[in-house]
Amino acid sequence: xxxxxxxxxxxxxxxxxxxxxxxxxxxxxxxxxxxxxxxxxxxxxxxxxxxxxxxxxxxxxxxxxxxxxxxxxxxxxxxxxxxxxxxxxxxxxxxxxxxxxxxxxxxxxxxxxxxxxxxxxxxxxxxxxxxxxxxxxxxxxxxxxxxxxxxxxxxxxxxxxxxxxxxxxxxxxxxxxxxxxxxxxxxxxxxxxxxxxxxxxxxxxxxxxxxxxxxxxxxxxxxxxxxxx
Length: 229
Known about the structure:
Shape: globular
Strand order of the largest sheet: 3-7-6-5-4
Helix content: 10-25%
Order of helices and strands: HEEEHHEEEEEEEE
Oligomer: single chain
Number of helices: 3
Strand content: 25-35%
């Protein structure tokens, strides 16, 4: 996936260098003054997050019994609603309702769900897909907080039978795509003609789905068409 800004940067570099022909590079004339970037607020630096207070980090979901017997099926057969409810309850307790790890409205929204995901439940139907490349299915789902924001969650089953969260992301989900061991999240930008695409891949060292690439993509239809609201 190549982004528009990458192509634009390449074009800018080519224009700055001049035009090339059989005799080599030729000057394109004065292209204007190049201004160095100005750094704002140099003296300000964010504090490091407290241990366990960083969204997106891997964490075993408390309150979910270990899966006994074979783990080769991965998250297949594990109750998605029970996993998400236990995970978000623990996150609200851990961040004291500040919203750092999960939106404070999450538990209220989950209260609309009964024993299964139905028409009144804001938890999206679970998707099973192998994202770690080990042949086991991960669980992908999202809790819709309102008509715009959602809490995206991905869970895996570890070798010891414990369920672990490997990705958490609060976002406006313009679209979510999976392909092989990649998960891409599409979000709107301030420019209505483009969407931001975050590509996550499995990192066995950290045990999480890590951001590997962030690009811009045209909205469906191309030609500068606006994205659907």
